[in-house]
Amino acid sequence: MIAYSSYLHTEDFSYQDSGVAWRLSSLFLQAIPFDHKNLVFCCIGTDRSTGDALGPLVGTWLKEHPTFPYEVIGTLQQPLHALNLQQTVESLHGRTLKPYIIAIDACLGKINKIGHIVIEKGPLFPGKAVKKELPPVGDLSIKGIVNVGGYQEYSTLQNTRLQLPYDMGKVLSRALFLAWQRHQFKLIRNSNDDRYHENSW
After folding, report:
1. For burial by CB atoms within 10 Å, which of 15, 43, 128, 154 has the most?
2. Nearest Cα to 32, choosing from 138, 171, 191, 140?
3. What distance lies between CA 99 and its chain's CA centroid?
4. φ, ψ for residue 162 (rounded to 5)?
5. Quick check: helix, strand or coil at residue 194?
6. Which domains does the chain have, with CATH numbers?
């Protein structure tokens, strides 16, 4: 069993940084309890807005990995957005086994932070940038800053070039999948070490 970080507050990475997928995967390996029995990835957003497509893109790519074992909610085909978010959150929290939720969403921020992926302990607040009242989601939140906030946020999201959420989503989905693979390798290595020590007696 791999312990996950309880001290994580806020970390951010530019998606263009050298080796960012590996560095993100190292953080996810500490922060995400991959051995949780009900680990859920909620990828929030809609394909009807280019700036808000980050979540559905990540969800789609995670689900396309045939070996990725976790539940993924929110894809280009079946988005998780303002119209179904409340019902989905209530359903998740109504389960017998409480889920550990990784929430992923696009957001707006300062101009010098565009292209940054921000990881925080605790929930994110979907729709906050466009003044929507939606329930908080997640035990760990991952946000991708896709454009500048502070003025005509809805229009800003609508007119964000798709290239940025696409590129950020590729990095993010690759890092999450890599973190899970590294978790698996560590379990196998630990198991082999245990067998070696057993056989050495």
Report:
1. 43
2. 140
3. 15
4. -65, -25
5. helix
6. 10-199 (3.40.50.1450)
